[in-house]
Amino acid sequence: MTSFRAYTPAAYDFPLPEGHRFPMYKYAGVVERLRDRIDILDAPRLEWELAEAVHDAEYLRRWRLGEVSREEVRNFGLPWSPEVVERALRASGGTVVAMRDALRCGFGVNLAGGTHHAFADRAEGFSLLNDVAIAARLALAEGWARRVLILDLDVHQGNGTARLLANESRAFTLSVHGERNYPFRKEVSDLDLGLPDGVTDGEYLEVMDAKVLPAVAAFEPDLVLYLAGVDVLAGDRFGRFALTLDGATRRSRRVFEACRAWRVPIVTTMAGGYNRTPELTIAAHASTVEVGLQVYKAIQSLDNVKSV
């Protein structure tokens, strides 16, 4: 067992109609697959005050009490319930404590999160609270980091994150996504790399080497929040790319090896993954953590990081 920890909200499920497209299965599946590889803890509940650093207080109040319209629920994509709100708090809380772990030992893991479609005052695309924006704001406000980079490699653009951090010069939003995929009205990230349908391993990894990693290095972050969406895989219900499991794993290895070489703490979140083969979704999410552990297993602490 390593000294690293992962956090999960898997114990906090919520009611869904039969046949709903949300992949609830994957959270417990990833926990089971990683149980013998890393310590796994229940994700703590995010404090509402932290959410208010990026979200409108009235928006949060209405969702907390269920005072939301049918249109708002439709845009969110999940039926309202006290349990779905609790789950969102746990998923975001997992990103915050994983960030604190990363700042202490280089590598933090949330087995959920990456809810990048949440805006200040509206929910979209299974995203009620924007966990990475919340974590970035907290790190900057507390002085735990001077420059935070959000590396969003989900197949869908991180539109909510881009909007929430648009005026924060100390944060850099980088999104690699399907140019013709949801959301169909894109926001403006600090760097948007929209790729065509059908992108293969070689084409995607070429973009990583030629554009993504140089952009990360140029910003010189002292914290990276990584959305390791596996909806880039061929066969995903909501993705249009054609990566293999090996390609997605090589993508994450590049990210982790670069951050380790630069001595930049990194937090990985699961983000999207909706493959027609559920076992592949689970394997891909688990592989992200497994390759991270391979890269960081010999690292116990980083020099000159703040105590948090």
From TrEMBL:
Residues 34-277 form the Histone deacetylase domain. GO terms for molecular function: histone deacetylase activity; hydrolase activity. One of its GO terms (biological process) is epigenetic regulation of gene expression. It holds the Pfam family Hist_deacetyl. The keyword Nucleotide-binding does not apply. It comes from the Bacteria. Keywords: Hydrolase. Belongs to the histone deacetylase family. This is Acetoin utilization deacetylase AcuC-like enzyme.
